[in-house]
Specification:
Layout lengths: L1 E5 L4 H5 L2 E5 L9 E5 L5 H9 L5 E5 L1 H17 L4 H6 L2
Antiparallel strand pairs: 1-3, 1-4, 2-3
Helix pairs in contact: 2-3
């Protein structure tokens, strides 16, 4: 999977990422690195990546990106749409 990792964060995925390099001109808030993560099952990997919330962005493949988005939406729905409570559930 091609991902962006917020610099200085997301240490879990960073430990086993391949080809970590500074992202160029993201236009996003903060500094980011790009990396490659190996996985087998998008539905099983998505909850793990979702734990890192705004410190990890899945760029590719689309099925993993969508699985992470759906997982985050489900967590938000469980908190009644209050992101501050979702953060406390970690």
């Amino acid at each position: 999977a091609a991902v962006r990792l917020r610099r200085g964060a997301a240490q879990g995925p960073r430990r086993w990422a391949r080809d970590v390099r500074p992202a160029e001109d993201t236009g996003w808030d903060g500094e980011w690195d790009e990396a490659v993560l190996t996985f087998r099952d998008a539905d099983r990997f998505a909850p793990y990546l979702a734990r890192f919330a705004d410190d990890v962005v899945v760029l590719d493949p689309p099925d993993l990106r969508e699985a992470v988005i759906q997982h985050l939406k489900a967590v938000l729905a469980c908190t009644g749409g209050r992101p501050e409570e979702a953060g406390e559930a970690r």
